[in-house]
Amino acid sequence: MSRMRWLLVLVLGMMMIDSPVSVKNDLTFLTRDGCVNTPDMLNNLEAALKALGWRNDYRFINIGTLPKDDPRTGYATPTVLWKGKDIFGLPAPTPPFAEPS
């Protein structure tokens, strides 16, 4: 998981702004009930935010609570979105969205 943490630091660092501000409107963590990778990804995300000196105030969304036609329900979990785009460059899901397995 160390690689993922550094990748998050690198990607978020490239988008870094001059002073630490809220990332609540830009950074979204997507998960679903029972996602076994969520704890590790959350730890890495929070470590990356701390390393950048950013606030830890991102949006945390359980995609199971979203309407079925919301495009975010089509992402695998966990997923981190920056300004609505997957930080690893995966394309946005298109309908019909797959049911979680």
Q: From the alpha carbons, calculate the radius of gyration and give it in angstroms.
A: 14 Å
Task: Give the strand content.
Answer: 5-15%
Rounded average pLDDT: 83
Count of individual helical segments: 2
Total domain units: 1
Q: For the record, what CATH class applies?
A: Alpha Beta
Shape: globular
Task: Please summarize the sheet with the most strands.
Answer: 4 strands, mixed
Widest sheet: strand order?
2-1-3-4
Report the count of strand segments: 4
Could you say what the CATH architecture is? 3-Layer(aba) Sandwich
What is the name of the CATH topology?
Glutaredoxin
Low-confidence stretches: none
Query: What class, by secondary structure content?
Result: alpha+beta
- Order of helices and strands, N to C? HEHEEE
The helicity comes to 25-40%
N- to C-terminal distance? 23 Å
- The oligomeric state of the chains shown is single chain
Brief write-up:
The chain has 101 residues and is α+β, with helices and mostly antiparallel strands.
Tell me what the structure shows.
The chain is α+β, with helices and mostly antiparallel strands and 101 residues long. The chain has a single domain, classed as Glutaredoxin. Helices cover 28% and strands 15% of the residues. Strands 2-1-3-4 form a 4-stranded mixed β-sheet, with helices on one face. The longest helix is centred in the middle third of the chain and has 15 residues, at 38-52. It is globular, with a radius of gyration of 14 Å. The two termini are 23 Å apart. The model has no long low-confidence stretch (mean pLDDT 83).
